[in-house]
Amino acid sequence: MDGTRFDDLTRALARGSTRRRVLGAVAGGLVAALGGRKAALADHKADHCAKEGQRAHPDQNHPKSCCPGLFPDADGRCVAGCPNAFLTGGPGMQGVFVDDDLEVLVNGATVFVDDNELASFHPPIPLGAVANGDTVRVVASNSTTPIWCFNGEEILGPLYLFCPTTGETQTLDADGVPLQPAGGCGHVFYDEGFTVAL
Question: Which residues are paired to 156 by β-bridges?
């Protein structure tokens, strides 16, 4: 209620005005007060988004979303990276070729294993959410099947990280391992770690 309406109300009360006039003045004051609140809310900007390192949901009463380009990690902190990364064989959603077996780890935890002892062309391999600074490790090995231990071949196609959400691509290894003779049963011919920087 603004000062003028308050003054009118007090004068009306002092003069002994009718109830109807007093109630009208009170109602007018409430409408003015609510109207002012509505205008203030209309001008109010949404809370600033949570920046990198801040919690996306500091508490249940005042949730925030992460600023653009960030997503909440398992602890609810906003991080840069990708909420749904894939290991691919090229920029975009290309498959990964390996002869013979493959293991992919994110921060030391295995997220994919191919141990079928055969050359395989895999669709893009889902890694889940990865934050910048996380590690992705790729291990490729030769078959342990005796007939292929020395008579087969070893090869690994190029490796990329792709984030469908942002469209960003990170080149991990544009060459991979060119075709080479098999190096023995279970020979690990590729074991590289990469730091996520999407």
Answer: 98, 177
Distance CA 69, CA 129 (A): 13
Give residues with Cβ within 8 angstroms of 75, minimum separation 6. 55
Digit-coded pLDDT (tens) for 77-123: 889 989 999 999 999 999 999 999 999 999 999 999 999 999 999 99
User: Is the Cβ–Cβ distance between 119 and 99 less than 8 Å?
Assistant: yes
- DSSP single-letter state for residue 139: E
What type of residue sits at position 179? L
DSSP letter at 38 equals H
Name, in order, each residue with C-beta under 8 angstroms of 66's C-beta and a sequence gap of 6 or more. 49, 50, 56, 72, 78
Contact 155, 178 (CB under 8 A): yes
Structure token pair of residue 163: 């984030």
Separation of alpha carbons 191 and 106, rounded Å: 13
The reply to whether omega before 100 is within 30° of 0 (cis) is: yes
CA distance 16 to 90: 85
Query: What is the length of the chain?
Result: 198
What's the rounded Cα separation, in Å, for the pair 119 and 18? Answer: 95
- Quote the CA–CA distance of 190 and 77 in Å, as a whole number: 34
